[in-house]
Amino acid sequence: RGVIGASTTRSHYEQIMACLKAGKAVFTEKPVALNAQHLKEVIDYAKNSAIPFLVGFQRRFDRNFCALKAELDAGTVGAPRVIKVCSRDNPLPPLPYLATSSGLFHDMVCHDIDMIHYLTGQVPDSVFAIGHCYNKDIEAMNDIDTVVVTLSFPSGMLGTIDTSRTAPYGYDQRVEVMGEHGMAQAENEKESTLVVGTKEGFRTSRAKWTFSQRYEEAYLQSLEHFIVGMVRANKTDDPEQLQRHVILERVIAAAEESYKSGERVRLSK
Predict the structure, then answer these.
(1) pLDDT grade for 269, boundaries at 50, 70 and 90
(2) pTM of the complete model
């Protein structure tokens, strides 16, 4: 009744369309496609059918970010004014994977832009990105390993994203939102809540080492959401949520364009 797609990036579009046209529910890893036209084709087909379709943005199912969203939705800190997303991978992914990953923006920054949309429901009207590559093997792929993206929004909200392929202290994912009435943040997860204090000072547990440890529960929750939708023959995302993939792809592409051109890109154009 359904298919879980975890194949290489370049094969996603053809496999997704084949499964949807066969009437199969689809859970796929991102990116859905490697170009905007193919992405639109997939999303339009999914929206116009009754077939469950879900893209694996697992952070939307993480308990910490879900709790943060609940506070924002409740208005606890008021209208968001600044949102900061920290996203640092670890360890460095295998080079063969990076060579086919579609690059830092489409492989990692896409998660951060999706998280801002998940938490606030807002889409930026301009982006500016600066980056650097420390790893010579990645540089040879015409890619970068470190980037900072700034975003402005029609509401006046400002956003920053800092993304890195590596973090020697462990996997690091944090979000902070400052609003008119206060601040809310989801901190990074550690191996335990242990704190040890001695005359030498305080020592805490290490950060979880990699994404499979950090998001073990979130992956299960996202799969459960897909399976329940498939069994009940319900859409796993409403049309508006499906359309976000097309809208946010423009933001991701604009961030990459900004890095390459060195100029702010306005999405209203």
Answers:
(1) low
(2) 0.95
Range of the domain at 26: 2-55
Query: For helices 36-47 and 239-261, what crossing angle results, to 10°?
Result: 170
Q: 110 and 89 share a domain? A: yes
Which CB contacts under 8 angstroms, 24+ apart, belong to 135-144? 135/92, 135/165, 135/166, 137/95, 138/95, 138/98, 138/165, 141/98, 141/99, 143/98, 143/103, 143/104, 144/104, 144/259
| Residue 119 and residue 83 share a domain | yes
| pLDDT digits 0-9 by tens, 183-212 | 999 999 999 999 999 999 999 999 999 999
Burial class (CB in 10 A: 0-12, 13-18, 19+), 135: middle
Amino acid 156 reads: G
Out of 164-173, 191-200, 228-237, 244-253, least confident range? 228-237
What's the CATH number where 14 sits? Answer: 3.40.50.720
What gap in Å lies between CA 10 and CA 27, rounded to an integer? 16
Contacts of residue 158, defined as CB under 8 A and 6 or more positions apart, other chains included, come to 81, 82, 83, 150, 151, 152
